[in-house]
Amino acid sequence: MSSDRCKALLSWYALHARKLPWRETTDPYHIWISEIMLQQTQVKTVLPRYLGWFEAFPTIEALASASADDVLKAWEGLGYYRRARFIHRSAQMIQSDYDGRFPNEFDDIMKLSGIGRSTAGAISSFCFSTFTAVLDGNVKRVLKRWYAKPETGDKELWLLAQQAIETADDPAIWNQAMMELGATVCSAKSPSCEQCPVQHHCASAFHVDISKEIRKPVAVLDVHWRIHLFICPEKGIWLSQRPDSGIWAGLWTPPITELEECPEQEPAHIHQLTHRRLHLYPDQSETEPRGDGRWVPSIEGYALPTGIHHLLEKVI
């Protein structure tokens, strides 16, 4: 790693780093939650939920003792709810196996549910100043462009990332700077090479070939769901809890029937997931609901999927 490139990147970061609440702390609980929230979710979406999370669960102990429903409710709006279940499970593991203190060894951090090598590297470097590399999507992109290796696999990228951090004085600042560069300047679709602090040390500067970096589009399956709305002025709305696996696992919804064919009517709402496009067709029934569920006077205390929230806003 060129010392000039290192100095240029760190000088830029000192001047241009975004002010974000998780950068104002080295508390591993706060860093852990922020890192999981930021997986596949934009910063602007995470910010209000991050602050609200610690109002609901100020300590790991409070999180570990909370109900699964309360944890999912606090996660509402972030999507990929499996992350919330992993966090809850890990908090309980920290309470039982580590006396309620977040582990400070990399290998122990890796044992927590939902934490892979890159996330463990971020937590370990940010909180405990270890020279452990991060290789999230932003860092991968920066390294591939620096070395003009758009098709390089993770094995070599991990070597490059580790070599780079070992030249830094402060591993936390180095990892943050790399992630920030990828998020704000060396972006996926429109890199701003003219604003890049390391343009003179980048093999791809001003001629990034985006076409070589674009992944094949993910096949999306269209799913058609009938949403049975049982609404009673005296009782509220009937909700049932989804199974522990599958789409919207553990969340609360009105009863749902999957349709074998696309109805002639237009869906009231279409909700996009990573591999599914959910077409939602409301059916306001006047019969009594059957099966497991409960009448809910207000949905305020229940974790509902964003797609159901949007549907209810349109039809109620």
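The record above closes out task 2.4. Task 2.5 opens with a second protein, given below.
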Amino acid sequence: MKRDKRRKGAGSGLLHNMSGAPQAQIQHKSPHRRVCGPGTIFALPENIGAGPETLLRNIERQASTILADGKLSRLLRHVAGQAALTGAESDRDLREHINAHALTLPFPPAALVTDRAENGDERCTDLLTIITVLAKSSGHVYLRDKEPNLAQIRPGRRVILLFPRGRTAH
């Protein structure tokens, strides 16, 4: 150990680094575990496009949607060649589906969102529920009553909702 010559009197000197490589390796594993319990993972399946018309087509085929008056929805009529569906109509229809479905979900009006999955998290497989959660979630919170943001429905985006203990997603 070399002494600092600028310093007068007794006292500790400054330690100078040597040219040798460090011998110690420090590792840390966080003991962090979610207090609220397991979450539910929402992500689009890899084989599904994210355009409003494509999403609507997949939702309605999955659910075989027929309106209460017995008529097929605008999108199914379009697919059958009965009517043209504009981009604005696709957006509007998708927003209507999302808002209506959000009210039927057994989720609280607000829930925490994380992007960190853990062992024990469940994966949601219902397409309309996945789309609804993606459209109504920001980086940190899911809000049931917010206006859907269709730009948030994109392949590769994953949302994990955290619920209070005792409450689960379907």
